[in-house]
Each structure stands twice: as structure tokens, then as C-alpha cells.
Design goal:
Layout: E1 8-11, H1 13-17, H2 27-39, E2 44-50, H3 62-68, E3 76-81, H4 84-93, E4 97-103, H5 106-113, H6 117-134, E5 137-143, H7 156-167, E6 174-178, H8 185-198, E7 204-208, H9 215-224, E8 229-232, H10 252-261, H11 270-284, H12 292-295
Amino acid sequence: MTLPRSIGLVEVGPRDGLQNESATVPVPVKVEFIRRAAAAGLRRIEVASFVSPRRVPQMADAEDVMRALPRQAGLRYIGLVLNRAGFDRAAAAGCEEIGMVVFTTDAFNERNQGTTTDGAIRAWHEIAAAARTAGIKAQVTISAAFGCPFEGEVAPERVVGIAQQVAEAGPFEIAVADTIGVAVPGQVSEVFGRVAEALPGMALRGHFHNTRNTGLANAYAALLAGAGTLDASLGGLGGCPFAPAATGNIPTEDLVYMLGRMGIGTGVDLGRAIEAARYIEQQVGHPVPGMLLKAGPFPGAARPAAAKSA
């Protein structure tokens, strides 16, 4: 088995992490959380989703957050969009990168975006073209790639077919997401391997939730299958508001610890990542799932490691 020397990380805590919080998190807290994530060495940070504030109230302040963020060379703020109106808002707010989501099933797309899977793919093609014209980097996530809470199992062939369709719009990266945390490593190996085979040269990213305690194992399987970037959320906060019983993402600090002990560089300072996770735990007012906050790192494991360029 060949492991990479370094990988990229996308910090999704400020968006995917906070969107499930019932109490409104103020803009200054979100901005400070993002500042701390960047200070820890995270270079791609998903900061907000430009969606209906009625459906996701926690993201109603997306433009305010973007306006308050300091700009820094080598640091990209990502906005999640679901349609052309969301893209226009993200572009006007100054997002350097946008991400779009396509669910593998019609039922989940209807819940999340009010359209079918084919409708979401068409929307992605329109958004990708608009992003190219605007000079904004665009990537897309295939969500619920390992199972849907409404339609059940998802066949690998379905994921590969969607990947081929979204690739036609020229994303710089495709993410494959276990949105509800049902995947196991064998599934991850198969799906990532088949997508990589179908789309040689395409940059692949993994997005895993730890709902059933398989998130880190799945992240490892994705690395072995060719994923060059992984998503994670400081403290392990997060979950999809439209997925029943959703729990958090894999914790950034736990992932950085595991990768660092394996000799895989991320460019993230583990000590600062733990501090950032502790900060947001205090701000949301309840314990977060991350284990490093409780156990601490093994001595010597907090050395900063070289990052993979974004």
C-alpha cells in the first residue's frame, strides 16, 4: 500500500460544522473561528453557504461573514451554493472558490435543493460556466454517495455515472461524500477506485461523517484509493439539516493527529487546531465529538508538517 507524503485539507467547520447548531452563532464568533483555523495552517476553509435563510437560518449571515474576513495570500474562502442565485450571491461577496452539491438520489435532492438529481446536475453545469467566466474556482460534491436516508443503498455505478456527468463541466476537483455516515472502508475503496478509473487525472476529495464511528477509517481508505484532499471539521461539529439523526464530521484535529503519526504532511499545527476546536466548543456551549480535546496528543505528535499545495 502506497501512502502520499502529504495531502490537502478543507476545513468545513464554519459551514458544515455550524449549520446544525440550533442557537445562532454570531458573526464575530464565526469570524474568530475562521481566523483561528487559518492560524492553525488550514488554507482552504468553507466559510458559509449561500442558501435560503429560511431553510438554513444559521447561514443567513453569509455575506456579513465574508465581508468581515481578512484576506490573505494563499488562503481561500469557500462558499457553498446550490443554484445560480446562490452562486451570484457568493461571487458578489468575494468567494475565491465555490462548491456545489449533487445528491445521488432524487429524494435527497428534493429535500435539500427542491429538484431532482438531473436538475441538480444541470444547475451545476450552469454554475460551473458562470464561475469560469468570473474567474472563480469551482468544485462539486457527490453527496450521499454511500447511502441515502430516504432511498437506501446507493450503487457504485450510480456514483460513477454522476461523476462522469459533473466532470463534463470542468470542475478542478470532485468530492465524494458520505453525508449520513453509513460507509465502511471497503465501500470507500471501491467507489473511489471506480471513480478514479473512470476519470483519470481528476482530483478527488473525500468528505466523511462519523455518525457510526467509521469516519477516520473511511478517510484512510480514501487516501489509499487516491483521494488527494480530505474534508474535516474542527471539534467534529456538523451534520446535514435534512438528514435524520445526522451527527458530526470527522474532527480536523483527530485527522491531523492520525496523519501526522503516519508521516503524512498536512501543514496544520496540531496544537493550534486543538485550541481552535476548544474555542468553538466553548462558543456553542456544549461538548463536541472530537477526541483530541479530551485525550490530548501523544507527546511529539504536534510537529507541524509540510502541506500539499491547494
